[in-house]
Amino acid sequence: MSDTLKVVIVGGVAAGSKVAAKVVRLMPDADVTVVEKGQFLSYAGCGLPYYISGVVVEQAELMSTPIGVLRDHTFFQKVKNVRVLNRTEAIEIDQKGGRILVKDLEKDAESWLDYDKLVLATGATPVVPPIPGVDLSNIFTLHGVEDAEGIKTTLAEDKARDVVVVGGGLIGIEVTEALVQKGCRVTIVEMLPQILRILDKEMAALVAQHLESHGVKVLTGTKVESFEGNGKVTTVVTDKGPIPADMVIMSIGVRPNVSLAKDAGLEIGKTGAIKVDTHMRTSDPNIYAAGDCVECVNMVTGQACYVPLGSTANKQGRVAAINVCNENDAFPGVLGSTVCKVFDYCVARTGLTEAEAREFGCNVTTALVPAPDKAHFMPDAKLLMLKLVADSKTRKLLGAQATGPGDGDKRINVAAMAITAGMTVDDLANVDLCYAPPFSPVMDNIITAANVVKNKLNGYMVGVPAAEVHQMLQDKKDFVFLDARSQGEYDQVRLPGSTLIPLGELRNRIDELPKDKEIIAFCKISLRGYEAAIILQASGFNNVRVMDGGVVMWPYEKLT
Amino acid sequence: MSDTLKVVIVGGVAAGSKVAAKVVRLMPDADVTVVEKGQFLSYAGCGLPYYISGVVVEQAELMSTPIGVLRDHTFFQKVKNVRVLNRTEAIEIDQKGGRILVKDLEKDAESWLDYDKLVLATGATPVVPPIPGVDLSNIFTLHGVEDAEGIKTTLAEDKARDVVVVGGGLIGIEVTEALVQKGCRVTIVEMLPQILRILDKEMAALVAQHLESHGVKVLTGTKVESFEGNGKVTTVVTDKGPIPADMVIMSIGVRPNVSLAKDAGLEIGKTGAIKVDTHMRTSDPNIYAAGDCVECVNMVTGQACYVPLGSTANKQGRVAAINVCNENDAFPGVLGSTVCKVFDYCVARTGLTEAEAREFGCNVTTALVPAPDKAHFMPDAKLLMLKLVADSKTRKLLGAQATGPGDGDKRINVAAMAITAGMTVDDLANVDLCYAPPFSPVMDNIITAANVVKNKLNGYMVGVPAAEVHQMLQDKKDFVFLDARSQGEYDQVRLPGSTLIPLGELRNRIDELPKDKEIIAFCKISLRGYEAAIILQASGFNNVRVMDGGVVMWPYEKLT
């Protein structure tokens, strides 16, 4: 049939296979071809760390449907009616001719494929900087199935014990957990002053502490200068000294694969990724793009951003497919919502960090709120540490971060919805969320956090970050660091330079405190600290602040 | 000081103690008195089932702060600067005089308390209908700490084995789980045709099946006619026959305590609860009310509703306190969001059920979507069964329900946020939620569910409820009930009257199907059923529907 829509999709992993599946659902007679350079298609790249750790046993599980059918050529052909050309590389787009040159990598044979609509889902490639020795063996990235197999083989054969992970981003952290579970001693080397730049520094510091409690060495502000070894890597040389290494994982980040698009003259965005409109259409109306090769709009700032994530790739693939089929759908943008398992911590975030919000020019108010993630009397309640970032002027929520063993992504998803809807912290404080003791505190953690921001915005509470207090202590500033906890809690653990007056005794012992000095109150989570500040203010103390996050979120040394 | 604000709060449990705590934070010098009829204040009523089961060991845990301080008189007086009169009943309000008559139940002495602002947090009382024999011993409600102690004592002394729970609502279900854990054989007797009216009937049926899999007998459409016994209850007589009972829990529901308000001439709403504005102010500007004694606005319908929940009480208490202190805050209303643990099921809901939406006059489109709650290749992925209800005209989400072992409340909270923000299913399908394999599928369950509703609204898919198919089977209607699963799945479990053609064979075997009969396609979760329907429609079959929810959510008999 001459009126059959010919769709060629370049890339068959996340976005590409989603586009194919959706196009044939909308247009069962469409002539759909997927061109995939690699051997594998439609695999769950995000599952690779769990395949390395052994949580996922079989490689095939990452490439199967939920009911266990392998998503291979036969599946795509027979079930989906999609032709798959794997081990086939797209070479050149002939836009005027409406055709694309592809090369069968097995047969080394080139041919042209006609298209009515072309979809680029070319993905991204791990960044591997030209550090001397980077070509030594046992230095891996973790991007494709082949990488995971290489790492697994090395672990099995060489019993790699000392592993250096270069780059403390999401993939670096996930692979670290997997390697520790396989018995490796892992060192994370991060050039920047903190790991996980998706978080603010004090939140990232709490994650780093947790990594270290599991035996991981976290070296921030450390630059890799070279790799040494004899065929196989043996040493990672950094500006702080050498580190022994039986294996190295390079997880510095990825860059979008845009050469095909660039060569065809398609518009490339500021971020270096392919520019698309909300319909996922490139600057050529017959060419769409989706997934890790495109740039997105940050829904908070309205600015272009590059946030390659599998969840986004799948949604974009669906939107692209709908528009390819001449229906109408739009992809609104992203918030950078993400979650990461770090041993028994759930680390999640959405929207802008405080640093990003300030950089964007916002005047922000933040809250750090640690609390049990369920009714505190439930024995399985776990600590959840939340940070909210709000615009001081509009009172709108801009971002949220979670860490700790508690159920963080549940709250971050609520925050993502609030940001999407443009809600203020006042709105968020009164939303009707599910409550029962096995699932949440009676005031959900995110509602309490919204109330803390409200208290600050309304002038009831003046907060001070732990970092500022820590600096004041180091500078030997003259202030009272008032601990409002009980004697028993104080005896267990205390902060340097602090003075204990339990909240219940404060009214009677108020004369012990000087009115001419600043008082910084705190407690375990800074609720009693807040109440102490209120009592002091009511008694004529005019220079009182409350330390954000209390003892629980103090990321520095504690005395025991 | 004559300018000290005098605040009297009637009721010291959830809303009342929240009002007290917030008032003294905002106005540390306010003269705050809490009048509480019972012995206990500020206890977590929602935790009582977990105290009965022994998950919560000590009664005191329900009355303590997260750091273990008992919230008793001393605590309120010393820490909060709040006077507590417990075992004290509020008798009469003298609105003109700005005073309230209270009676010390220990000393049997009455006195007047002056107030500038009065807050009614009088709570609710369990409904106990005048059924013959209802006064026999070992018949309990579960509302206060005393009830829980009575039940625990009976369990300890009498080794109550056969327990009848009258009323299959939230409290009835929660107490059922607790009693089964204590070794009781439990029968739930529900007058209505389904348990858990907060859910639609097919969702409630799945919960009932789960209860029965744990040995609980669920009798719906069954009316209690009398209780028999000799001092202690021994038998519950129903219209379907007698049931042996060593103990009975009456959990029919609660009614708001409004007599004090009513006697004072305050406006009572249609629901029978106290009417308040968004500031939680009653018809008397100096009298506020909050918690289980007030009626709310349903944010979807705009209509008055009575949904007594601890989470709402706490938020309302905070809002009331802020307004009492002449600041400004507003409570927007509720969605009826709630969650309930039913053994290893998480049962949650928000907004309108399909039945409620239809009753309200909406034309609705629904989706039933069962799927793993995490990436399907993660070994701890659990089944989550979602139902979405959307307005067919506006495409707005109206409600959502979840059941199954998977992480349901996480998705229902997202739905609650979407409803609050007035989002359409199109909006919901593209929200940026957190993804990583240990936490969610790459397309989160709620996003997939939104896409299913979109497919129906856009005419790509015509659904049919299991109930309708079941009726068609019973009526011996002539249609093809097409199972698109694999032979292996079919051999394990199949639905009555179904014909198997695995999806992968459908294109080749399409001639086996008649074009003149209706075809209802399904599979395990009805995704392959949907793809089968698409293939059939493309081949000229014009009468094809897809059964909602597939085999997984089929609430009737299955063949094995």
Question: What can you tell me about this protein's structure?
Answer:
The structure is a homodimer of 560-residue chains. Chain A is of the alpha/beta class and 560 residues long. Chain A has 4 domains: 6-43 and 56-124 and 255-324, FAD/NAD(P)-binding domain (3-Layer(bba) Sandwich), CATH 3.50.50; 139-252, FAD/NAD(P)-binding domain (3-Layer(bba) Sandwich), CATH 3.50.50; 344-457, FAD/NAD-linked reductase, C-terminal dimerisation domain (Enolase-like, domain 1, 2-Layer Sandwich), CATH 3.30.390.30; 463-547, Rhodanese-like domain (Oxidized Rhodanese, domain 1), CATH 3.40.250.10. Chain A contains 16 helices and 30 strands. The first copy, chain A, has a 5-stranded parallel β-sheet with strand order 3-2-1-7-18. In chain A, strands 9-16-10-11-12 form a 5-stranded parallel β-sheet. The first copy, chain A, has a 5-stranded antiparallel β-sheet with strand order 21-22-25-24-23, sandwiched between helices. In chain A, β11, α6 and β12 (217-219) form a beta-alpha-beta unit. In chain A, α1 (15-26) packs parallel to α8. The longest helix of chain A is centred in the middle third of the chain and has 15 residues, at 310-324. The mean pLDDT of chain A is 95. Chains A and B meet through α3, α8, β21, β22 and α10 of A and α3, α8, β21, β22 and α10 of B.
